[in-house]
Structure formats: C-alpha cells, structure tokens
C-alpha cells in the first residue's frame, strides 16, 4: 500500500508514494523539473494509468519488490 | 615481461607487493620488492606460481557486502589508521607510535635541508633529543636515503636507546656491547661482518674501547650515525682522544650522515667545542667562525634550545613540561656527628701537612681528603666503608669520582672511593667511631623523613638520589621504617643495567612509590612516568649531575603538573658548605642569568684548591694553613673560571643561536601531518567504536582515561594483541601526558593498529576474516544531505621515485574520500569534509529493494561517470605530495629530488549512498 501522505516536491503533488522504497507514482506525466528533483533525492518516478488493472505495472512492481 | 604487466606496475605475488622492472625474457617477471634494493630483484615465472600473480589492488566492493552506518564509519577510520606507508611531507609519520610536538620537528626539518645530514642537536636535558634524533633516523630510512644506522652511546644508555627506537619508532636495533658482541659474532658466517648482519645497531662506547674493535667498527660503520652524549667524545683525556679520532675518521666520509647529541656542547672548553664543530664540517674548526657568513653556515647544522625557548611565547608549549619547584632544606648535625667530622678533617689535615711540598703527593692528599669528606658527609655507613676500604687509589679515577664526572665506562661510579691516604694510628679510632655512628640516630636521615612526610601525605612519588651504595642502603632502610606502607626500592650500581630498569618498572602497579638510587640512575633511565620528585640526599659536585637527576622526572611526558626537587645540606658540614659556595651556588647564578646549567670547569686543579680553601677556612680554621698550602688565591681563580664559563656560554649562544627554524615554518607541516593521520580525538573515537563492535566496549574511568578488557575481544584479535605485549585489562589514556599505569593510545599503539588491521582485512577479505566483516557498501537516509550523495572511501597510492645517485622507487599510500553529487560527475566534498557526511545521524530506514537499487546504481556510476574525477583527485594528491617533498627536502645541490606518480586505477574500498531524509 502507498504511504498515507502524497509526496509534494517543488509544488508538484504525486498522489502515490512509497517513501521507504524511494518510489513515487503519478497518474499524469510528471514534469522534467519535478522528475529531476525527485531523482536527485533517489526516487524512482513512475507514471501509472488511472484505470485499475489486474496487476501493478511491471516497473512499479520491480521497485516495490518485497513490499506488503 | 608478460603481457599482463608493464614495467613499474605494482603486483602482488608470494604474499607481498613488488614493482615490475624491465626483464630479460617476456615470459618472466622481473620483480623488486617494494622498498627493497637491487640486490633483492627476482625473476619469476607466473605460470609456476602457486597463487596467481595479480595487480596489487583491491576489487570493487561486492554488492552483497552491505554495511550499516556504524560499520561504514568504522571502515573509514580503519582505513585511515591502517595506511602505514605515509604520504604527506614526512614519510615516517605513520610509523611513529607517538605524536611528536611541533618543536621536535625542527631538527628533522633542518636535517632534510642538508644534502648530507651533519647536525649538532644541543637542546637542554628533557626537551627530547632522543626523539628528535629518532625522527631523523626513521625519516631517512623511510626515504630510502639510508638503509643502515648506528647509534653510538655510553653503555648505560644502550638499553634505553634500543627500547625507545623499538617502542616509538618501530625500529628494531641490535645492542652491540663489549659483552654482547662475541655472542652476535659467533652466529655469523665468516664472510659476514656484524654490522652487515645487523643493519640497525646501538653500539656501546665500551665496545669500541679496544683498538681492534675501533678499527673494525670504522671500516664497517653504516652511513648514518647518531652519537649520543657527544661531548664525551671530544675531550682531550686519553679515552676521549681515541673516541674523537674514531669520529674524525667517520666524519671524513663526506657522504656519511652524522647526528651529534649533547646537552652541554660548550661548557667553557673552547678546544672541545671546536672539535665538536669540526665533525660537522672542517670549515667550522679553528677560528673559522669569526665571520658572520660562517656562523650563518653553521646555523644550518646546529640547534640549541633551552626549556624557556619551548615554553615561551614562540612555541607556547607551557603544558609540555611540568612546573618545577625547587627547595633547599638545611639540617643541623648532632654534637656527636659534628665532632666526628671535625676529627676526620683534622686527621686529613695532618696527612696533607705530612705530604710536604711535593705537588703530586699534595694533590693526592687533597683529593683523598675531599673524597673521604664526601663519604663522611654522605652517611656514617659510607664513612665507615670508605675508612675501612684501604686500597691504593688510582689518582685519575679518584679525580673522576671526586668531581662526579660522567662515567663513560661500565664500572660502578657509586662505590665508596678508597681515599688513598697514608695509613696511620688514629685511623683505627676513626673507623670505630664511624661504625658506632652507623648505629646511632642519623640527623640527616631524620631531616629527610621530616621533609618527606608532608610530601608523601600529598601523594608524591619521590626519587632520593644518594652518592654511595652504602648510603643508599642505609637511607632505604630508614625510609622503610618511616613509611611502612610505601613501596620502596633501591637501585645502585650493584645491579646490572637490565635489573635496574626492571626493578623500576616493577613499581608501576604500586599506588605510591619511593625509589632510593645512586647516580647510576641519574642518566639514561627515564623516570617521569613513575616519579615526580627528586631529593638530592647528597650534593653532587657536578652541577650538570643535579640537572641530570632532576631531568629524569622533569621532562617531556611527565604526567604531573608539578615536579619538585629538594636539596639537602648541613650548615655544620665543612664539605657541604664548600661545595655550595664554590660550585653549586655559582652554577645556579649562571643558570639564572643564562638559562643554562654549565658543567664544572674543566680546570680541576683550580676547583680542588678552591674547595680545599673553603674546607680549611670553614668555621675559622687556621688561615695560616690556607696560606701554607698556597690556597689563598684559589677562590679568586675559581671565580675567574666561572666567569669564563658564563661568558663562553653567553658568547656561544649569541654567536650561534640564529636563523633557527621558527614555529611559523613548522606549524603548516605539523598540521599536514595531523590532518593526514588523524589526531588523538579520531583515534579515541575509532577505539571506542571498534571495541563496541567487537563486543568489548570500553569502560570509562576518568576524563581521557578508559579501561579496555582485551580478553573479551574475539580470540583472533586478542591473540594478535598478546603477541604485541597487550593482554588482560588495560588502562588507556587518550591525552598526553599519560598518567602512570596507563597506555598512551596514539595512532600506532598496538591496540588501534591491531583493531584497524583486523577490521580492514576482514572487510577486504571476508572469507578469512577473524571478526564479523565490515560491509563495503551501504545506504541510509539522513538529514545531513539535501540531494542523493555518494561517498567513496579510497586507497590512494603514489609511486615516489627518488632521483639520487641510486634511484629508488618507494610507495606512499593514504586514505582518501570523495563525495559525489547525485549525477556521479560533480565532486561535492573532498577528504575530511566528505567523511564528515558519514557522521550525520541516520534517519529512518529503507526497504531492501531500494537499498539494493541505490548501491547497484552507485557502483555503476563509480565505474563510469565518477572514474575521471577519482583519477583527477589521485593525480592532484600526487602533485601535492611532490610539492610537500620538494618543500621539506629543499632543492640543494646534491639533495635528492623526488617525482611522484599516482597509481591508477584507484582502489575503491567503500561506496556509501546518503539519501536525503524527510521528504
């Protein structure tokens, strides 16, 4: 499950955040500045579809490996 | 040369590191051990080696070797403490087991500015001449400028020298004395000389007493020589003449480094001083120092500093030496003792008058009188022994004993002299009276006990110096009765030097201790760790002997802030009064005026006459006798001698004490030294952390003191420590001066050195680690960074080529650290600033998958984007090292030049990724 609090960086809000995994996801494409700011903090930023699917996107699954 | 290696590569084979050389066959490797000589070159076929020959470097960290933040910090500190082949301006810095004071680097800097080291170090007693000479020895050896050395010293200092060289400088020297030489020679093949088999030696002056040995020594002598107590080799007495001839012969080899040590270079004897200077360079002999230019030239070879020069404004080393309080305690003789002393004196006068006008007989009678009166004044036991001891006296030896000349030979100097006076009837009654007094109350001993009581109650640890063995035994017995709870030992010339030292060292566990010693201990054995007070039970007639006695406790390394010395004398004693008036008070006045203790004037005839005059005139004895003996002018003549000594000392200092290297020149080198190796705080932090990591945490005992329980360490580590002389529970001191019973923990002390080696070896070779290995990669969140930061721990290595007549390749290595920005290109921080990032508190934790991802990405960056910056850093350090070397080893004609090349690729020891916390 993502953290309860969304991730806010330089005014941009990423609704899904797994801070212990240094991972964040947004339903909209993330701007270059925000992405760079997050990557400079060690985060992996992923854009996901807002349509629910059977399984998380593989990239997200990879960075969340081992999460409950 | 095989294709895998190029000339000048560093390779690892047969358990050690080598440098590859161009070889005769491309299938063979031509290798020279690092720091080895051409004679050690070997050809090796890699195909036949059991262990494959490889480049001497460490592989990149394995991603599975993960570390916590604590482990990362320990690894960084272990790396810094383990790199023993020093970079920085001094190659020897990492080899020392102590941290020298800045002022002690002055002679080293002077030495490095000379093409061939010819140095006269004439610092005062207790400043640290041994340390200063040891620093030069270690540095010249580590620079490859010398591969053998000899320290030439009096017999009683041999053990002190070998001990200090081993403990402080990691130099294991062989003691060569008259007694050890035959044993050393027996084990050698006929083709090998003693000094070839033992490259580092401490040679006793008694070894070179025989002509044959002197000649052998001169022929085989190493090209680096230290002469301790050098003033004892330049006098005109026969034995000294031989020593001077030997040193002159050694000095004739203009390539030989020669370091002369003495606290009393001048002492008013122009001829001896002249000889001393001539050993530095023939141009300084004779009247050659009359010009300013020649004196400036000499200043490059001559350093002479008093205590006040070190503690004063320039160096500001107030705490290096303790405060020194001196006191005098007069005591009254009992009527019985006074009558006995008068009777002995009357008897002596009778003998003198009986000697008639013959000068030789009269001179002998004077010395006999003075010798006997010294014993009488010392104790009834010494008087009894001397009066009974009716052997014929050797006039030369008697003179030495009377005037407390330094004993260069091995024979005892504290045996009661045979006065050599004619036997006569009344003597028997004097012997009987002396024997009777040995059983009566002794006012001198009682005065000593009274004086000591409040001091002992205040916790001091005194050394009571006596002139004679009989007195020492008598005093020790009396003090044991008076202070039954105190640990009291006696050390006299009856013990061989090794036993003297072990008896002193055996007192370390005692809570409070008192030592009764004769002057066999006033030189050589340093007592500052165990004692803080000196009592001159007997006046020495040589002022420098008083200085030497006090110098045993009043010196560098004394843990007490205050040391005391107390001088005992009797107002009733003819001999005490004479010695005080004629010698000690005069010397003290000169010391106050010039800051220097001048030795007894060499012109002993004048001293004898002046002393005799004072004795004769004591308490209104017949002035006629003084006139009859021709002593009336003696006091005036003596005054002139002292004035000459004072003037000589003033003149000498004014003329030669110039162009000395000052603190402003030393301080930057000193700072580089400390920055590179880590100061005491870093060593303490490492020991605390390492001991905790190994389940043997330190137990705090007091400020800067802790107790280490070594048995609790993993057995592989405690066994290594035991092999280096450390076991059980040990009290550690982390700040100087180390109190008695503690181990001063410096960078090279066996404890931090062993812990660092064990931890680093375990980390680099986890398979054979004796301890839980430290990881080499890690990541943690911290508020200490705002962006992702990668800290690299590096082992930087530099090839140093010394371009001299014989080119040598040496290796320097140092721990380095770089902190990179998130992109892995830009360097954010270097060195200590990068390491400081590891100290910021961690904040929270990361999921394993995130940790794995970050360290894998970081390792990838290290191999790609970071590598250019890492190599640029290594080259910059190499350039800096070359500048350091050029600066301290000033480019003079004949001085070797050093070029430095970074060894690439750099070894990356640790990779740690810091993630900004709190987003």
Residue runs with pLDDT of under 50 for 5 or more positions of chain A:
none
Main structural class of chain B: alpha/beta
List the helices and strands of chain A in order: EEEEHEH
> How many β strands of chain A by DSSP?
5
Radius of gyration of chain A: 11 Å
Word description of this protein:
The complex is a heterodimer of chains A (68) and B (919). Chain A is an alpha+beta fold. Chain A has helices spanning 32-39, 58-63; strands spanning 7-9, 12-14, 16-18, 23-26, 44-47. Chain A contains two helices and five strands. Chain A has a three-stranded mixed β-sheet. A two-stranded antiparallel ribbon of chain A has the order 1-2. Chain A starts with 6 loop residues before the first strand and ends in a 5-residue tail after the last helix. Chain B is α/β, with parallel strands linked by helices and 919 residues long. The longest helix of chain B has 23 residues, at 634-656.
Summarize the topology.
The complex is a heterodimer of chains A (68) and B (919).
Chain A: E1 7-9, E2 12-14, E3 16-18, E4 23-26, H1 32-39, E5 44-47, H2 58-63
Parallel strand pairs in A: 4-5
Antiparallel strand pairs in A: 1-2, 3-4
Chain B: E1 10-13, E2 16-21, E3 29-33, E4 42-44, E5 54-55, H1 69-82, H2 106-112, E6 118-121, H3 129-142, E7 149-153, H4 158-169, E8 174-176, H5 180-186, H6 194-197, E9 200-204, H7 211-220, E10 224-227, H8 238-251, E11 257-261, H9 270-280, H10 292-299, E12 302-303, H11 307-311, E13 323-331, H12 335-354, H13 359-378, H14 380-388, H15 395-402, H16 425-438, H17 443-457, E14 462-466, H18 469-482, E15 487-491, H19 497-505, E16 513-518, E17 533-536, H20 543-551, E18 562-570, H21 574-594, H22 604-617, H23 623-628, H24 634-656, H25 663-677, H26 680-693, E19 699-702, E20 705-709, H27 715-723, E21 729-733, E22 743-744, H28 750-764, E23 777-782, E24 789-803, E25 808-820, E26 827-830, H29 832-836, H30 848-863, H31 867-888, E27 897-902, E28 907-916
Parallel strand pairs in B: 6-11, 6-12, 7-9, 7-10, 8-9, 10-11, 13-18, 14-16, 14-17, 15-16, 17-18, 21-22, 23-28
Antiparallel strand pairs in B: 1-2, 1-5, 2-3, 3-4, 19-20, 20-21, 24-25, 24-27, 24-28, 25-26
Helix pairs in contact in B: 1-26, 1-28, 2-3, 3-4, 8-9, 12-13, 12-16, 13-14, 13-15, 13-22, 14-16, 14-18, 21-22, 21-24, 22-24, 26-28
């Amino acid at each position: 499950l993502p953290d309860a609090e969304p991730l806010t960086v330089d005014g941009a809000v990423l609704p899904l955040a797994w801070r212990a995994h240094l991972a964040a996801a947004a339903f909209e494409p993330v701007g270059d500045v925000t992405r760079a700011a997050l990557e400079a903090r060690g985060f992996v930023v992923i854009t996901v579809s807002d349509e629910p699917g059977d399984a998380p996107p593989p990239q997200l699954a990879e960075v969340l490996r081992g999460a409950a | 040369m095989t294709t895998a290696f190029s000339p000048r590569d560093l390779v690892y084979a047969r358990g050690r590191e080598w440098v590859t050389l161009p070889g005769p066959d491309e299938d063979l490797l031509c290798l020279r051990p690092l720091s080895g000589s051409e004679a050690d070159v070997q050809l090796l076929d890699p195909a036949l080696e059991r262990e494959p020959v490889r480049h001497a470097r460490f592989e990149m960290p394995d991603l599975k070797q993960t570390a916590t933040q604590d482990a990362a910090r320990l690894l960084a500190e272990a790396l810094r403490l383990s790199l023993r082949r020093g970079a920085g301006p001094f190659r020897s810095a990492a080899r020392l087991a102590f941290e020298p004071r800045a002022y002690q680097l002055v002679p080293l800097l002077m030495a490095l500015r000379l093409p061939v080291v010819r140095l006269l170090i004439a610092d005062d007693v207790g400043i640290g001449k041994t340390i200063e000479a040891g620093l030069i020895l270690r540095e010249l050896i580590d620079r490859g400028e010398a591969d053998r050395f000899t320290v030439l010293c009096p017999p009683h200092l041999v053990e002190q020298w070998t001990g200090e060289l081993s403990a402080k400088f990691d130099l294991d020297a062989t003691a060569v004395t008259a007694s050890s030489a035959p044993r050393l020679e027996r084990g050698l093949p006929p083709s090998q000389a003693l000094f070839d088999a033992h490259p580092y030696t401490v040679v006793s002056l008694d070894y070179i007493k025989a002509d044959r040995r002197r000649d052998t020594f001169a022929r085989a002598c190493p090209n680096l020589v230290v002469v301790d107590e050098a003033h004892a080799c330049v006098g005109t007495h026969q034995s000294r003449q031989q020593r001077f001839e030997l040193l002159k012969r050694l000095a004739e080899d203009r390539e030989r480094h020669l370091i002369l040590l003495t606290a009393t270079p001048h002492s008013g004897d122009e001829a001896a001083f002249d000889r001393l200077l001539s050993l530095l360079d023939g141009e300084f002999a004779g009247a050659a120092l009359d010009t300013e230019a020649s004196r400036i030239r000499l200043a490059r070879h001559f350093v002479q500093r008093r205590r006040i020069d070190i503690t004063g404004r320039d160096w500001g080393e107030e705490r290096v030496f303790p405060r020194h309080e001196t006191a005098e305690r007069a005591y009254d003789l009992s009527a019985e003792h006074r009558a006995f002393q008068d009777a002995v004196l009357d008897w002596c006068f009778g003998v003198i008058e009986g000697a008639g006008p013959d000068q030789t007989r009269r001179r002998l009678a004077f010395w006999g009188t003075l010798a006997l009166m010294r014993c009488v004044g010392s104790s009834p036991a010494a008087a009894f022994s001397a009066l009974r001891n009716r052997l014929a006296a050797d006039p030369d030896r008697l003179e030495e004993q009377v005037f407390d000349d330094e004993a260069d030979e091995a024979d005892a100097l504290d045996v009661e002299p045979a006065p050599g006076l004619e036997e006569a009837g009344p003597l028997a009654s004097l012997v009987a009276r002396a024997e009777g007094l040995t059983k009566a109350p002794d006012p001198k001993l009682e005065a000593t006990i009274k004086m000591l009581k409040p001091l002992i109650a205040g916790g001091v640890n005194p050394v009571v110096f006596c002139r004679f063995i009989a007195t020492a035994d008598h005093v020790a017995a009396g003090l044991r009765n008076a202070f039954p709870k105190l640990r009291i030992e006696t050390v006299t010339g009856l013990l061989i030097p090794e036993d003297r030292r072990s008896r002193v060292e055996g007192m370390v566990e005692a809570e409070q201790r008192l030592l009764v010693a004769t002057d066999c201990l006033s030189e050589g054995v340093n007592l500052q760790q165990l004692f803080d007070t000196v009592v001159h039970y007997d006046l020495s007639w040589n002022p420098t002997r008083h200085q030497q006695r006090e110098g045993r406790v009043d010196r560098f390394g004394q843990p007490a802030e205050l040391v005391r010395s107390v001088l005992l004398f009797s107002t009733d004693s003819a001999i005490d009064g004479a010695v005080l008036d004629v010698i000690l008070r005069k010397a003290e006045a000169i010391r106050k005026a010039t800051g220097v203790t001048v030795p007894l004037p060499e012109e002993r005839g004048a001293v004898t006459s002046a002393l005799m005059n004072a004795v004769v005139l004591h308490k209104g004895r017949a002035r006629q006798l003084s006139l009859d003996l021709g002593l009336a002018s003696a006091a005036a003549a003596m005054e002139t001698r002292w004035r000459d000594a004072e003037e000589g000392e003033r003149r000498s200092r004014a003329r030669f004490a110039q162009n000395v290297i000052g603190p402003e020149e030393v301080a930057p080198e000193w700072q580089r030294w400390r920055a590179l190796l880590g100061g005491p705080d870093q060593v303490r932090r490492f020991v605390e952390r390492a001991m905790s990591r190994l389940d043997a945490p330190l137990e705090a005992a007091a400020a800067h003191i802790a107790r280490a329980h070594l048995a609790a360490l993993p057995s592989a580590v405690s066994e290594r420590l035991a092999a280096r002389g450390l076991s059980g529970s040990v009290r550690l001191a982390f700040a100087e001066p180390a109190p008695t019973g503690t181990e001063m923990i410096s960078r090279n002390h066996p404890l931090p050195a062993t812990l660092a080696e064990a931890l680093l070896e375990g980390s680099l070779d986890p398979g054979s680690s004796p301890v839980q290995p430290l990881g080499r990669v890690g990541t943690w969140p911290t508020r200490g960074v705002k962006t992702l930061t990668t800290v690299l721990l590096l082992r930087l290595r530099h090839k140093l080529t010394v371009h001299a007549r014989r080119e040598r390749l040496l290796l320097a290595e140092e721990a380095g650290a770089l902190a990179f920005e998130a992109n892995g290109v830009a360097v954010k921080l270097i060195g200590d600033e990068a390491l400081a990032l590891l100290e910021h508190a961690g904040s929270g934790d990361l999921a394993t998958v995130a940790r794995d991802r970050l360290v894998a990405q970081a390792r990838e960056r290290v191999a790609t984007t970071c590598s250019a910056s890492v190599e640029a850093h290594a080259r910059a350090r190499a350039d800096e090292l070359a500048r350091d070397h050029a600066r301290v080893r000033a480019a003079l004609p004949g001085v070797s030049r050093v070029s430095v090349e970074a060894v690439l690729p750099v070894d990356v020891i640790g990779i740690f990724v810091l993630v900004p916390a709190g987003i």
